[in-house]
Model the fold of this input.
Amino acid sequence: MTVALAKAPVEAPSGTGPRRRRGPRIGLALAAVWLLVVALAVFVPHLLAPGDPLAGVPALKLQPPSAHHWWGTDEVGRDLYTRVVHGAGLTMSTAVLAVAMGVLLGSALGLLAGLAGGIVDVVVMRVVDVLFAVPGILLSLALITVLGAGTAAVAFAVSVGSIAGIARVLRSEVLKVRTSPYVEAAQVSGNRPLRLTLRHVLPNAVTPLLALAALELAAAILSVSALGFLGYGAQPPAPEWGAMVASGRDSLRTAWWLTTVPGLAIVATVLAANRVSLLGGRRLR
Amino acid sequence: MTRYVLGRLGQALLVVWAAYTITFAVLYVLPGDPVSLMAGTNLGFLTTAQLDELRHEYGFDRPLVVQYLIRLGAAVVGDWGHSIVSSRPVVDVVGEALVSTVQLTAVGLAVAIVGGTTVALATVWTKRRWPAQLLALLPPLGVAVPAFWFGLLLIQWFAFGIPLFPAFGAQGPASLVLPAVSLAIPTGATIAQLLTRSLDATLAEPYIQTIRARGAGTGRVLLRHALRNAALPTVTMTGLIVGGLLSGAVVVETVFSRPGLGRVVAQAVEQQDVAVVQGVVVLASIVFVLAGLAVDLLYPVLDPRIRAAGRRPVRSALGGAA
Done:
């Protein structure tokens, strides 16, 4: 009940711009369909591409796109379509893991700052400021220096970049509702702080948090694939979108599809996640 | 005013100090010391006694707090430690690489500003016609494009396809074109998004109506009256924009095999050269802070309303970043 009531005023005035309201939301529909396809590729890749992403036929190397190999083959004769489909799992799971960790850590910090107030608030938010002050990739690289390459390391390194934004949004949401009459009423009725937070404060923050998480997912996909491109993510035979772009670089002159296609997958997924994040209102960060 | 400037300066120093401290914590505290980290890779041939000697030489055998204080003290006076791999001073290593990166980011920033502003103005100008819809698609697309991928596409098209520019390296100004453009795409798109939004808001203000009523055409309204006000929120994002460019430069330099901070940091990460990594990260935070500081101090010059009020600019009122 509270959630439904609180949601309406958040979405109504912001949402999409006043001028763009009219007309069918083709963009949103396309985004939803694409994300569905990506989800299929993540969970049941064999349904979309029954082949083996690691098995190549050397005789068929560097074939341009054709009816047989929709997106061509790579330098050892592996089908690019199969590899891109199976690569979705690696790229997306790393990005989702990163956002999940970022949301967890960021919400904890934001809640702490918003609820505790005073000196705790100041200290936590200063730390968050610093996370903002160091450009994302560099912070990730510093962590990778210590953690070494690999999917888990990349996920953690990327998650640190999203903590700051999430902590800020959650803190401001908490401050917004903390002094509202219904929260005060709940407090006076004898709710303990933990229950108050989980039952009455947190549900209000869910919509902006989800919107921001979608936005952070888009950013995380870009960071994960950039780190994959630099060679710090999943290691070579494994198909990861960023790493695939990097390995296509060697045959850039002869086989354009090897770099172009995995990159297009990244662009489409980031676009879709960004579009979906708009649903939660534009007033973020 | 002096009070405000000093306060801002203190805040800036605090952020840089905190960035130094956090990177120290990450790089030096977490997994033991850098020498044992490297013992697994580059220094595998050394004996335990030699490793201990190396540790002593770099001070890794002292308590962490002592190490931290000594290093911080030295960093303040410009000694950022030595590269563990080449044993050259970090300041030299980073300083040499900086020239090329600064060239790239400066040109990238210029391209991003010009491109982003042009797209934003064109979008607002052509409202309600079909090109407007097409133009409105560009910024979200630009934000979604990975710079490393776009760089490779540019190489394919304008170095291999039509041989206009060199594909790799850093010889002469022509070699700067493709990297700068691919670096500018995400940043330019962000600028276009911010600017379009604030142009829309500015055009809805009463003073614009007054100017229109007095007979000014769309072009004059946009360029002479709306742009200046609408640009302010974007200007406050300069710190984030420059930070984003630095991040992007690391990747773009790798794509185009250019020398610079990107190559230095990539090498340092691979060789676990913590001092160099820390140097680059702290440098980036200094650049971020300086950009923010410059904007805040220049703000009264740009916005007469603040000059008149004599107070600090209100950042929170300026909407979102994305």
Q: What stands out?
A: The radius of gyration of chain A is 22 Å. Residues 51 and 259 of chain A are 21 Å apart (CA to CA).
